[in-house]
Specification:
The protein is mainly α and 300 residues long. Helices cover 68% and strands 2% of the residues.
Length: 300
């Protein structure tokens, strides 16, 4: 008699996909649905809530703090994209060159900050951007002829600069690693052919390197966009306990945290989170349309 087995050709795909499907339902779909439901409530204590419909979303339209948080988050996101993408790509090209001395040492040194705890990095950069005249940043500013500043408490621009520099220090090595992996997939024959045709180093970079790293370029830009709009750790450690006078350093996720766990307004915090999720989905659709992601002719 033939023995019956639990896994057959028909049910094997379902069994192997079951762990992912179950974890997705428990840890992604259910929390998301609960967040949307909570955004329609006004919580006034444990198991004490009132259904308010779209009132929490209407509050968003008149909230000056959320406007400041959006401006800060967008400014921070734009800043890390402008700095991280070209800088990581240029460093990757340099460190991918076999003639670069100690290139493996520099690769490791640039990646080490990504392994550093955000708490440790935040404490250091909090001291780095302190308002004392002898702090590193103010010492450099005075050398250049500028007056020392309270970077973390001066205005929104200085707060964004502090966030951008902190995040760049931490994540530049990771983006560098992405570009290095892309550069090593470009055939050397393409560079040799371009050199034979008389192409200059810049022309080889523009016509060979950039098209070769285009998928990773899109990927890095996308993750920096998502990471920038949902950034929390850097702002939380630079401004402890959400102390952001004048909304300096206030980001969208930090504002969600302050409403949820500072003021215990879970309904309004959930409404902000739902709005952020919708905005990220819109950004995703724009990226898909702009970069023509998924089209076969773009993969050639």
């Amino acid at each position: 008699m033939k023995r019956k087995t639990l896994i057959t050709k028909r049910n094997a795909p379902y069994i192997f996909c079951a762990p992912f499907i179950i974890s997705f339902l428990l840890f992604m779909l259910y929390p998301m649905a609960d967040m949307i439901y909570t955004s329609l409530l006004k919580l006034e204590g444990i198991n004490n809530y009132t259904f308010v419909g779209l009132d929490n979303y209407i509050r968003l339209l008149d909230d000056s703090h959320i406007v400041a948080a959006i401006i800060n988050s967008l400014g921070f996101t734009l800043g890390i994209i402008i700095i991280n993408v070209p800088l990581a790509l240029i460093l990757a090209v340099i460190l991918n060159n076999k003639l670069t001395p100690l290139r493996n040492v520099f690769r490791s040194a640039l990646y080490l900050p990504a392994l550093t705890s955000i708490i440790v990095a935040g404490i250091y950069f909090r001291l780095f951007f302190a308002g004392n005249a002898d702090t590193p940043i103010n010492s450099v500013m005075q050398t250049l002829g500028f007056l020392p500043r309270e970077w973390l408490f001066d205005n929104q621009l200085t707060g964004i600069i502090a966030l951008v520099l902190t995040s760049t220090w931490r994540w530049l090595g990771t983006n560098l690693l992405y570009f290095l992996s892309a550069l090593q997939t470009i055939p050397q024959e393409l560079y040799d052919a371009a050199k034979v045709d008389g192409a200059s180093p810049f022309q080889r970079f523009w016509h060979v390197t950039l098209p070769g790293v285009k998928p990773i370029l899109i990927f890095v830009t996308t993750i920096l966009t998502y990471g920038g709009l949902r950034m929390f750790g850097e702002s939380y450690v630079l401004w402890p306990r959400s102390k952001t006078p004048g909304d300096i350093g206030m980001t969208i996720v930090l504002y969600i945290y302050r409403n949820a766990f500072g003021q215990f307004d879970m309904g309004y915090a959930s409404a902000i989170a739902v709005a952020l999720f919708a905005f990220l989905m819109l950004i995703n659709l724009i990226y898909i349309r702009a970069f023509k992601i998924g089209r076969r002719d773009e993969l050639v």
